[in-house]
Amino acid sequence: MNKLGVAAILLSATAFAQAPGASCNKCSANYIPNEEIAQYLKRADGAGVADQQLRAVDIGKANVAVGVVYRGKLDKPGDHTVAEHNQVSEVYHILDGSGTLVTGWDITDLKARPADDRAVVLLNGPGGNGQTVRNGTTHNLKAGDMIVIPAGTGHWFTKIDDHIRYVMVRIDPDKVAPLKSEAQSKADLASGEKGYRDNSAGSASKK
Predict the structure, then answer these.
(1) Contact 161, 73 (CB under 8 A)
(2) Taking the complete model, does pTM exceed 0.90, yes or no?
């Protein structure tokens, strides 16, 4: 291959490497150590439901949040505990415990959450709570399982055998929920607060 051909290849490769193709420009990765996760899980001890955000980061075209959720024993669901989030999708990875989760889009008596509701403000943006899910799909969740719940899909714990704990990943393409940095997480843990309590998706207790 002649020098002109080699130069053309090198020029093309350089141009490709510099092309602005990434949707997040010079973004850094976000690391969450196991010790920090354990601190959040520990302060949920004794809670009926504790939904705690560890990080919420901007990845360019969306925000992504990582949290941990603890739910205590549930014999039957409370009133209006079907949860639905208009713009935020969720992924659960079950750490331990087991429970029955019903999902579906046909939610009875769905009522919007107030704009100042803590879940709306801090966790997952606008959404609502309903009474039941018609023709829903039942999932018997146990340790190691995962489930993806798209925005607009109702989700409802109808039974929890003793407890259930899971990692929560929230996908927020419209960036409706606030960011949370490592520094903010450390300040949260140092505050002595017990974390956010939520009655969505099936807790028998009310806010």
Answers:
(1) yes
(2) no
